[in-house]
């Protein structure tokens, strides 16, 4: 039985670019981590080491820096689209380009002074091929906690179940969310702000019987409020806050003192989408 | 347009279990990090918070520990299969179970003394559903370096290309490899050792014109030597070793002094499989 | 020549405690990582394994949780003092206790909802022994950047110097600062806010000829504004933002596009103190 | 009360240098992470931004690379001494240089092929000033485990003590060790191998009543076997392996199934030195 090359891609990962816009005394700052992955007719380099079709990953890095100067960065989705279109359009052997971006936020302290905002990271993944363009925006490491209004009971039990049911627990998670846009023309900044606000509002306002219920509420809220979004995918680690047993010390503990546990953790993953739409895995 | 729940799963991630086998004075040690993900008829918990179908992730954790005692661990693939089959068989609402395991190696120092071997981590991902069973074994963080016998030239050039061609460079990577077994009955330990040896041998023995060529040679070697393997997927970061320009100091640098760079890095990803087989994405 | 035991200490590191204060619907949250280190007459356990003098680290952990319930946490310095005094007072063999705390900030989203604030971590190190009490407060990972008003020139040059002088560069750092209080009775929250504000203001307002100059300005500003502080120690990594050479692409780059480099980095460390005071190394 | 500059230093941290020695077909590899810190008459740059005395950290980095070519690296202690002496000798304003090095190990796979050995990292810290030279060698992340021959009982108990005494437990730690050489002329490689072997042997062979006892045995063994060593400092985290309670599942657990816990952890720190010697804190 013979052996063949399957799906493959290559590119430059984690090019760190900071772009300062210096129009007068008041500077603006964009801080990105850009990863490029290209696919196409790349059998030659794999089978014989013929690199004719291979645009070096070093060139991809240079392109990121040159485009940051030539066109500016703007919103990460715009920058990703510009880069992805460029690689597909300019390289005959490249049929698909995927640009993944992390954007780090900075808070203004002065006309040219900034503090890194250590909260969530904004992300996007842009895919361009001959069939079309897909833009998935997202965020990671948005850590949220409700100190009450969360229950967990009525679950399946088997011989290995020891967890007590509870009508009041801490619910905490580090949100990783990605959402597919219905189009690649968009007010990206407004859309991001709107989706983020919907996610947070749903987490805060949902009286939760399970983290799955909260996940669905978050995805649903985004789709209800943001018509430009086709699908939301969420991964929510259950950052367990374990109630400490203080009874050996003659103390009760009515949901006041917790261990913030590292591992293990529950992990709840799910997608919420508009009825009739089929999941577009390649875009995510 | 109405809104619906899409694909979803949940489980306990990163349960750390160490199992000591104490048959007499000479102990054996297994050290695992186990993650479980279950899917099935879970609409209730998402839509209304009805947890009837939800086996708590805490129970999944308990099951890992109880099975480690009751059945021992053995090879990680065996342990993963036993756990995955258990969840699917015992929970009416669960149609698919996926168990992902990292195994950390320890080197023997004495009858009951061990040193953690900090090299690669052995991995596996076992998937069980009503259609069958899939076992993917793998490894991560196997860092390999050839200090010569690597070239890179003849590549595509555009206006952003500045990389000089080279007939001699350092080639280094941190291998992440996963391979699909043709069956779920196997001598897992022997297979792992054989695949690992094939990957290393191909890296060492390939005179490389591109990291893609090395990737393909590694996957091909596995399939040639190991009939039990159906497909190999590799992700190879190009851990760039940049030649330092010492000419300002009146020194030449004939491939002797390098910067080991962190970011950015090239990332080469690809699969190698037997002709006629179709990639089985769900197993990976 | 005989062999003896030198200085030693032991304790429980990184006890993670979250304390919810539930006075009515509006909850408050404290989130700490507490490390205890005890020293004293501990020769027995080292030389013969006689543990009579050893209060288990597990007990230290329990004490953290019990004190969080019994007394509340309040400011981290208060909590650290209470714990350190307890160990010295209650254990005859313990002559010195040191409690180091990291406090993670949360931003309020609702009466019982919070978002983890990913910026700097507030720290303190409290030392109590028979000679007295020392409280060092601090912060880490406060990342600041000035996109102009920084020069670097006029430095020493030798045969290995290639760095071009500059009259305009990006200056960025991740501030690690620790400051010694003149007393262990203090309005800790007000003091922290004041010191933090002074550090930031000095970074923002200093036209910098070297990162050392900025460091000294930051320390000096704290001592000028905060009479309760005796000494400030700063460690400032120079998070290099390297100007990209875009000339191969026909583009100039007037301080607009930068590589945010990971390694190597400059590291500037120094202390600023009141004249006549001697550095109190044991407190830091 | 006036404000003054206290102790300070500056330098380039984490310069990553890989040196290939290519004498014929069989290559040799050294892989280091080098950090330099210089101190001296540096008031000018702090107080006024006068950089006359400041050799740029960029120059320090260049020196690392140039020296790697010009002199080779050899053992890390040699390389550190050469660098530290150079800075003190060549820069009038620099009175003290400290070079800290991490060396990453590689295992040979072929004449020019290597695998990164992921075990412990070898370290050294070299300090040179007008009073002399101090060399501290060390290692970090050597993870050791005894699955029996460890007890812990007879300890102090107070109202917060709940830990049960045990006559049989797992003892595991990640060794961080540093040892001061009596001289700066040494067969560094042989000394390293000897010290490392002594540390491991003592861990393996000590029937342990406390981790402190094991710590002291490790330090003592080094001093007994290696006359060239003046003092050993050890930091041993107690990597707790917690026995899982399997009784709810009708299973006993005679020291067979453990949770490998992340946090919190005990931390045991101590030094062992020759009688009459005083600890030389500045060297460590």
Automatic annotation (TrEMBL), chains A, B, C, D:
<protein>
    <recommendedName>
        <fullName>Uricase</fullName>
        <ecNumber>1.7.3.3</ecNumber>
    </recommendedName>
</protein>
<comment type="function">
    <text>Catalyzes the oxidation of uric acid to 5-hydroxyisourate, which is further processed to form (S)-allantoin.</text>
</comment>
<keyword id="KW-0659">Purine metabolism</keyword>
<dbReference type="InterPro" id="IPR002042">
    <property type="entry name" value="Uricase"/>
</dbReference>
<dbReference type="Pfam" id="PF01014">
    <property type="entry name" value="Uricase"/>
</dbReference>
<comment type="similarity">
    <text>Belongs to the uricase family.</text>
</comment>
<comment type="pathway">
    <text>Purine metabolism; urate degradation; (S)-allantoin from urate: step 1/3.</text>
</comment>
<keyword id="KW-0560">Oxidoreductase</keyword>
């Amino acid at each position: 039985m013979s052996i063949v090359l399957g799906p493959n891609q290559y590119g430059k990962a984690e090019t760190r670019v900071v772009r300062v816009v210096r129009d007068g005394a008041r500077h603006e700052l964009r801080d990105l981590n850009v990863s490029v992955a290209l696919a196409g007719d790349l059998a030659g380099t794999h089978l014989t080491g013929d690199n004719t079709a291979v645009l070096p990953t070093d060139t991809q890095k240079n392109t990121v820096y040159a485009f940051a100067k030539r066109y500016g960065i703007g919103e990460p989705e715009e920058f990703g689209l510009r880069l992805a279109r460029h690689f597909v359009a300019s390289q005959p052997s490249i049929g698909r380009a995927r640009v993944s971006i992390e954007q780090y936020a900075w808070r203004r302290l002065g006309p040219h002074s900034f503090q890194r905002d250590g909260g969530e990271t904004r992300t996007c993944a842009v895919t361009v091929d001959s069939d079309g363009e897909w833009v998935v925006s997202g965020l990671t490491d948005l850590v949220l906690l409700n100190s009450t209004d969360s229950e967990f009971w009525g679950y399946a039990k088997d011989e290995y179940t020891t967890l007590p049911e509870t009508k009041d627990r801490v619910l905490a998670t580090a949100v990783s969310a990605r959402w597919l846009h219905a189009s690649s023309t968009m007010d990206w900044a407004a859309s991001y702000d709107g989706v983020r606000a919907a996610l947070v509002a749903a987490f805060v306002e949902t009286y939760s019987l399970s983290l799955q219920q909260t996940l669905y509420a978050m995805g649903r809220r985004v789709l209800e409020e943001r018509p430009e979004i086709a699908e939301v995918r969420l991964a929510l680690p259950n950052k367990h806050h374990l109630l400490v047993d203080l009874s050996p010390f003659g103390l009760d503990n009515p949901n006041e003192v917790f261990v913030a546990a590292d591992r293990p953790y529950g992990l709840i993953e799910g997608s919420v989408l508009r009825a009739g739409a089929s999941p577009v895995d390649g875009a995510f």
